[in-house]
Design a protein that fits this description.
By secondary structure, the protein is mostly beta strands. Helices cover 0% and strands 44% of the residues. It has two domains: 147 residues, Sandwich (Immunoglobulin-like); 154 residues, Immunoglobulin-like, CATH 2.60.40.3740. A hairpin with a 5-residue loop joins β6 and β7.
């Protein structure tokens, strides 16, 4: 099967300014630990998907350990909120400092959760070992980053702890393709595209990844909106689908986040076939069963619905999978590579 790899574009991100001198002036011999240069490796070029970008990230949770010269390890950051205030990232607990000769390790999470939609397991040093998503219906993007070990010496003073966050979820959109070849003037409209039985929960183990076969709850039903032609999609729902002429394609108004798991989707949508402006066929809640697939973290999937000549079967395919967090361009275009 041929797949087209769309390389998503990274947002330009200006360097952040470190914390003010007032925070460290009382300790001239040891510089305080501050967080800066925080990047999210993504972006979406198309519809609203609710994922974090470098520009939209406002807060993350940081974990950190210190190991002294004798090899003893202790915790210095335990799920501490680090928030963006102006041009600086600050934390509201007592400042921690670089101590020469000691080693430091850091981890950070972003999960935008509501209530108990997500939980984090930690080891004896309060460093994250696993992240569980318990309810995708209220879950936002999930990010993870790590930095360390860092050996503290004189060159470390004044340096900031940087993070490059990676997406732990998958992302998907739909492309609807009018493949009619014998009847010019036949237009389709496709609306209310929904996945009825996506994975609703799962567990990500740091260093190992998702257990793709452990999910048992497949009750998540994300709505992708209508198939529309929009140059600048927004988070606003489009009132109705737009005409898809012979040989043309349209995309779902929304991209949605999905949990990486081994699964087979039930796709549901409404479609209308027009001869010019006259409706000649309508199917409400048309369903398609996808092949079994295992989604991967940090990758964006383009699910293609092919609508053919009247009377021909409707087929479903995955035409492309793109790396969500690598191989970005800076010119706003997509690279296309056939595999």
């Amino acid at each position: 099967m041929k797949m087209k790899k769309n390389i998503l574009v990274t947002l330009a991100f200006a360097s952040l300014i470190s914390c003010s001198q007032e925070e460290t002036i009382n300790s001239p011999s040891h510089e305080a630990i501050v967080f800066d240069n925080t990047f999210v490796e993504n972006t979406t070029r198309a519809a609203y998907d609710g994922s974090y970008t470098t520009n939209s990230l406002e807060e993350f949770q940081v974990y950190g350990t210190i190991t002294n010269k004798n090899g003893d390890t202790g915790n210095i950051f335990d799920n501490v909120d680090v928030a963006k205030k102006g041009d600086a990232w600050t934390y509201n607990v007592g400042l921690q400092y670089w101590i020469p000769g000691n080693g430091y390790s850091f981890a950070a999470t972003v999960h935008g959760n509501e209530d108990d939609a997500i939980s984090t397991e930690v080891n004896d040093y309060h460093m994250p070992t696993a992240i569980s998503v318990n309810d995708m219906s209220v879950q936002k993007d999930v990010l993870y980053a790590a930095n360390g070990p860092i050996a503290a010496d004189a060159t470390t003073w004044g340096e900031t702890v940087s993070f490059i966050f990676h997406h732990l979820l998958s992302k998907a959109k739909f492309t609807v393709w009018n493949t009619i070849t014998t009847q010019n003037g036949y237009n389709y409209k496709v609306e209310n595209i929904t996945i009825l039985n996506a994975a609703n929960n799962g567990k990500y183990t740091i260093g190992t990844g998702w257990d793709a076969t452990a999910t048992t709850d497949f009750t998540f039903s994300p709505d992708f909106g209508h198939a529309v032609e929009v140059e600048n999609p927004t988070s606003e729902a489009i009132a109705e689908g737009t005409f898809i002429a012979v040989g043309k394609k349209s995309e779902s108004n929304f991209e949605r986040l999905l949990l990486p798991a081994k699964q087979s989707f039930t796709i549901q949508f409404d479609y209308y076939l027009y001869n010019g402006n006259q409706v000649i066929d309508v199917q409400k809640e048309k369903t398609i069963i996808s092949q079994v697939m295992t989604l991967e973290a940090g990758k964006a999937y383009n699910f293609v619905i092919k609508l053919g000549n009247p009377g021909e079967p409707i087929t479903f395919d995955v035409s492309s999978v793109s790396n969500w967090d690598t191989d970005h361009n800076d010119d706003g275009t997509d690279d296309e590579t056939e595999i």
